[in-house]
Amino acid sequence: MRKRMQRLSANREEGAATVLMLAIVAVVLVLIGFTALLGTASAARHSAQSAADLAALAAAEVHLSHGSACAIAAQVSELNDAELVGCEIQGEFVVVRVRVPVAGMWASATARAGPG
Fold first, then answer.
1. Which of 50, 106, 110, 111 is deepest in the core (most CB within 10 A)?
2. pTM as predicted
3. In angstroms, rounded to a whole number, what is the distance separating the alpha carbons of residues 113 and 37?
4. What is the CATH number of the domain that holds 45?
5. Strand arrangement, sheet containing 93-102
6. pLDDT tens, position by position, for the chain (116 residues)?
7. How many domains does the chain contain in total?
8. Backbone dihedral region for residue 85 (phi beyond 0: left; psi -120 to 50: alpha; all else: beta)
9. What count of Cα atoms within 13 Å lies in the side-chain half-sphere of residue 92?
10. Which residue range(s) make up the domain with 70?
11. How many Å apart are CA 85 and CA 43, to the nearest integer?
């Protein structure tokens, strides 16, 4: 009888390690996915900032030559795979806002350029 009780007790715990390992693997996979998403978002943010900086510099150069600064900002943004969402002339300065799509959302950036 005692041997039978020991076997029943051992049978109830059989497979517990498998369930535990599956839970650990699931947690690790979720963490890897989250880390990849953060990396993608960070890269998109840097891309948006680069596009905004370049668009603002180009727009400021054209603005000082009395050209169409915001049209140039839109072209430069598009060439950098970004969407121009705002362009303001503030005296001698140009402020540009762009956005870049990332994982169903947007990464945005603002840049200001002018003389000096």
1. 111
2. 0.75
3. 31
4. 3.30.1300
5. 83-90, 93-102, 105-113
6. 566 556 655 566 677 888 899 999 999 999 999 999 899 999 999 999 999 999 999 999 999 999 899 999 999 999 999 999 999 999 999 999 999 998 888 999 999 999 87
7. 1
8. alpha
9. 4
10. 2-113
11. 19
